[in-house]
């Protein structure tokens, strides 16, 4: 775990000094600010539907546009850049497990992504105060929506790490991750329609249900409903992609 | 400390390292020589756990690099060929990160980094960004990284490549100083520095180990001596005077502009033909301007075990294929 922590610290520092991260942060905050303004305006109009507030906050396509784009850009340099510059060699010949390096890099990306989300929590809190909207927000659904976003982001960042470990081209790594995120958010429903009768088969239906991120958020997380099977699905996906990333890194040690 | 046994590494159909075996004892400084593409870096990468061997085995301080990779890696400080370091970190930050990654305890970290910077001579650039230091300093930052956890074994892949003579000299001095406390295996294709620094050399060519021994010993036993003669005569006279001397292989005489001729002759091991050659020249009434034995150099030895071997192998191959090319007609004729 020491190796993972050391890697985490170094990677987080790299994110904090990287111009790309600052550009992402600025765009992200502007986007979130714009979204929250819209939501707040809607809130003044539909004051009665306070329970739908998180739905309005997290069920928006624009939110998912950021979730679709940012993980790919954040994780593209994780391993692809190390491979391109050759710094993967001193890293992999240091006495540290491959899994610890993967965990450290993923955790740093997740922490930075968390930092991007953090201000929106305070903004939501501000809405409760008299000078603003004097809202009586139900924070259960907000918590569930944030939990869902953490799980989804964790899985997407883990895929980003995997994509980055497969190539030394950072752009290709980003495009792969963005394509994966796009597929996960947009394809399950069209696939279910195409499959027709077959989509009603128990396992296929369950898989498509779990993969349907947009529906999971609009019908579950943002309504304050937490389904343990969804937690297991996203956590499992995250661990699976982290495992594949470790295998991808270790593969060069295979004779 | 390092033991390699029948190590082979293939990349698809390409055999990078072909069944090499050697060992490096505690306290030795061993130069790993070979032309570009000989398999030096691949061998070092297997030893440091970056690549796995296709066949054979390697141990570092008793730990197998395949089965106890983590333990083996703990014993090694490795300087890769191009010294890839993170350009956005300061030198001191980079070394602190590397020391922590290598398991140096927090309370000893500052001391370990200071000691490594001092040994590598980079204290003055400690606060500079890694991306802003010169090539020579970059190499020394890499060396400090190899030293920071104070490992007993150092593996240095072409530590002086791309450096100017002054920087090369400094790195050589650092390696010499380190030899007191570390076992060092370093690769290079610059022969002079290997001869200067190492107590033993290994020569690898086309993935195979061609020589293993002390530099001087290898040179004197494997390479040929030469006799150089310069005389006041024509090239033809000099050729005639040097022919027929036992153990002396006459070379090609060249005529100088001032009525002199010179020749460099290969000499069989254990033979000193200077007395007989001098007498012959005197008898022929030729004034001798220079007659000296040229000691074989590591360069000649290197050429002999790499290019020379290639030529003899090519000649053997040509000899083997020549009858085969001539036989088809005979074979056809022999067939019933």
Chart the SSEs and their pairings.
The complex is a heterodimer of chains A (255) and B (336).
Chain A (H helix, E strand, L loop, with lengths): L1 H16 L1 H27 L7 H6 L2 H15 L4 H6 L2 H5 L5 H29 L12 H27 L4 H17 L1 H8 L6 H10 L1 H8 L7 H23 L5
Helix pairs in contact in A: 1-7, 2-4, 2-7, 4-8, 4-9, 7-8, 7-13, 8-9, 8-13, 10-11
Chain B lengths: L1 E10 L2 E11 L4 E5 L6 H8 L7 E6 L2 E2 L4 H6 L1 E4 L11 H11 L4 H15 L14 H13 L5 E5 L7 H14 L4 E6 L2 H7 L2 E6 L2 E6 L1 H8 L2 E8 L2 H8 L5 E2 L4 E2 L5 E7 L6 H10 L3 E8 L3 H37 L2
Q: What do the pLDDT scores of chain A average to?
A: 83
Percent of residues in helices of chain A comes to over 70%
Low-confidence stretches of chain B: 324-336
CATH class of the largest domain in chain B: Alpha Beta
Report on the biggest sheet of chain B: 6 strands, mixed
State which percent range the strand residues of chain A make up.
under 5%
Oligomer: heterodimer
Q: Distance N terminus to C terminus of chain A? A: 27 Å
Tell me the overall shape of chain A: globular
**Percent of residues of chain B in helical segments?**
40-55%
Can you write the helix and strand succession of chain B as a string? EEEHEEHEHHHEHEHEEHEHEEEHEH
What name does the CATH topology of the largest domain in chain B carry?
Rossmann fold
Any idea what the CATH superfamily of the largest domain in chain B is called?
Answer: P-loop containing nucleotide triphosphate hydrolases
**Amino-to-carboxy terminus distance of chain B:** 63 Å
Radius of gyration of chain B: 26 Å
CA-based shape of chain B: elongated
Which class do the helix and strand fractions of chain A yield? mainly alpha
Strand order of the largest sheet of chain B: 6-7-8-3-9-10
Assign the structural class of chain B, choosing from mainly alpha, mainly beta, alpha/beta, alpha+beta, or little secondary structure.
alpha/beta
Total count of strands of chain B? 15
């Amino acid at each position: 775990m020491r190796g993972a922590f050391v890697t985490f610290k170094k990677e987080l520092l790299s994110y904090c000094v990287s111009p790309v991260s600052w550009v992402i942060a600025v765009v992200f905050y502007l986007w979130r600010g714009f979204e929250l303004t819209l939501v707040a305006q809607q809130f003044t109009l539909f004051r009665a539907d306070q329970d739908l507030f998180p739905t309005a906050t997290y069920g928006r396509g624009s939110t998912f546009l950021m979730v679709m784009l940012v993980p790919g850009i954040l994780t593209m340099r994780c391993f692809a850049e190390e491979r391109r510059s050759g710094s993967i060699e001193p890293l992999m010949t240091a006495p540290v497990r491959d899994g610890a390096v993967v965990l450290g890099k993923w955790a740093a990306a997740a922490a930075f992504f968390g930092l991007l989300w953090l201000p929106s929590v305070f903004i939501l809190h501000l809405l409760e105060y008299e000078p603003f909207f004097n809202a009586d927000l139900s924070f259960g659904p907000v918590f569930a929506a944030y939990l869902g976003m953490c799980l989804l982001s964790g899985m997407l960042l883990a895929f980003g790490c995997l994509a980055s470990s497969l190539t030394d081209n950072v752009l290709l790594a980003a495009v792969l991750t963005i394509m994966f995120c796009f597929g996960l958010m947009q394809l399950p429903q069209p696939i279910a329609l195409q499959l027709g009768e077959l989509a009603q088969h128990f396992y296929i239906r369950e898989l498509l249900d779990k993969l349907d991120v947009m529906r999971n958020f609009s019908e579950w997380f943002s309504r304050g409903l937490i389904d343990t099977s969804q937690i297991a699905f996203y956590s499992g996906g995250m661990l699976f992609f982290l495992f594949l990333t470790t295998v991808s890194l270790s593969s060069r040690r295979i004779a | 400390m390092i033991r390699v046994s029948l190590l082979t590494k293939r990349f698809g159909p390409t055999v990078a390292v072909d069944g090499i075996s050697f060992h490096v004892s505690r306290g030795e400084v061993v130069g790993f020589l070979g032309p570009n593409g000989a398999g030096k870096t691949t061998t070092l990468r297997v030893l440091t756990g970056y690549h796995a061997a296709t066949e054979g085995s390697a141990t570092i301080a008793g730990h197998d690099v395949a089965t106890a990779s983590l333990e083996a890696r703990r014993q090694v400080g490795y300087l890769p060929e191009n010294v890839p370091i993170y350009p956005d970190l300061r030198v001191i930050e980079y070394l602190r990160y590397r020391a922590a990654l290598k398991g140096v305890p927090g309370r000893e970290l500052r001391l370990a980094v200071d000691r490594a910077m001092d040994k590598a001579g980079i204290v003055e650039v400690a606060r500079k960004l890694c991306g802003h230091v010169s090539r020579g300093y970059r190499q020394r930052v890499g060396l400090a990284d190899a030293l920071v956890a104070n490992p007993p074994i150092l593996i240095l892949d072409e530590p002086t490549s791309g450096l100017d003579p002054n920087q090369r000299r400094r790195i050589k001095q650092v390696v010499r100083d380190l030899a007191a406390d570390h076992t060092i295996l370093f690769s290079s294709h610059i022969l002079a520095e290997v001869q200067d620094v190492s107590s033993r050399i290994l020569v690898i060519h086309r993935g195979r180990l061609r020589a293993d021994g002390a530099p001087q010993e290898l040179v004197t036993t494997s390479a040929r001596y030469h006799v150089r003669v310069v005389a006041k005569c024509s090239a033809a006279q000099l050729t005639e005077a040097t022919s027929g001397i036992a153990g002396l292989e006459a070379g090609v005489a060249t005529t100088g502009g001032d009525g002199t001729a010179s020749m460099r002759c290969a000499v069989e091991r254990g033979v000193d033909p200077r007395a007989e050659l001098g007498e012959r020249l005197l008898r022929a009434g030729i004034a001798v301007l220079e007659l000296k034995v040229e000691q074989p150099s590591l360069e000649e030895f290197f050429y002999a075990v790499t290019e020379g071997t290639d030529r003899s192998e090519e000649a053997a191959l040509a000899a083997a294929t020549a009858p085969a090319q001539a036989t088809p007609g005979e074979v056809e004729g022999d067939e019933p």
